[in-house]
Design brief:
single chain; alpha/beta; Rossmann fold; 5-stranded parallel beta sheet; 5 strands; 41% helix
């Protein structure tokens, strides 16, 4: 069992710089998190296995960060009942609009809450607000918190 409450899953290691603000916010709020690089396209079985086992390992919220054909958050959401937050990563091709549209157009029954393109800090704050419903210490940490 992990002590992390949040998992940040990015589709490519090249997304790490844009995901870093989420890690920073979670750390400042005292929320234990873990970070993984898993591609919905290159590692579909690993993504499936990760999502299926996430709740059993103590995770409570997943942040899926991906660019371009950004299927990662939707794939995570299809394999777990945990809340999934989509973080669209900007790219040179379409500036991240492709990723944003991929995430906000999930089919019925596969919910993905989605933040702005490169909105890693807000993804972490949304995860914190979800957790604050259960953990008073996280609710207290959020009060007055500014990014």
């Amino acid at each position: 069992m992990s002590d992390a409450l949040v998992a940040i899953v990015m589709g490519s290691a090249s997304d790490a710089e844009k995901v870093a603000p989420a890690e920073d916010v979670l750390k400042k709020l005292g929320i234990p998190a873990e970070v993984h690089v898993l591609s919905a396209h290159r590692d579909p079985e690993e993504v499936r296995s990760f999502a299926l086992g996430a709740a059993g390992r103590g995770l409570e919220v997943l942040i899926g960060a991906a660019g371009k054909a950004a299927h990662l958050p939707g794939v995570l959401a299809s394999w777990t009942s945990l809340p999934v937050i989509g973080l669209p990563i900007g790219s040179q091709d379409l500036g991240g609009l492709d990723a944003l549209l991929s995430m906000v157009q999930m089919p019925r029954g596969v919910p993905v809450a989605t933040v702005a393109i490169d909105g890693a800090a807000n993804a972490a704050l949304l995860a914190a607000r979800i957790l604050a419903l259960k953990y008073p210490e996280i609710a207290a940490a959020i009060e007055g918190f500014k990014v």
